[in-house]
Amino acid sequence: MLDHIDRIVALTSIDAVGIGSDYDGVGDSLPTKLKDVSTYPNLVQGLLDRGYSETEIAKILGGNTLRLWQQVEDYATSQGTQTQCTSG
Question: Fewest CB atoms within 10 A around its CB: which of 14, 18, 73, 81?
């Protein structure tokens, strides 16, 4: 997984990388030390070992997703097409 992150960063930028935490639908194809979300510390340590900063890791683990989500919402608002999500 770390090699994939390195490759995406090399091809694009750190701002284009994001990872989900559910690992849904991948079966037994994940490395032993990254089997589920409880092993996130292993992923973080691997990124630190490869020289990623805490800021870059925060982008990978959710910051980029939140930024993109905000951009989509801002665009929808500018087009008059935003629908508010409500619970209840």
Answer: 81
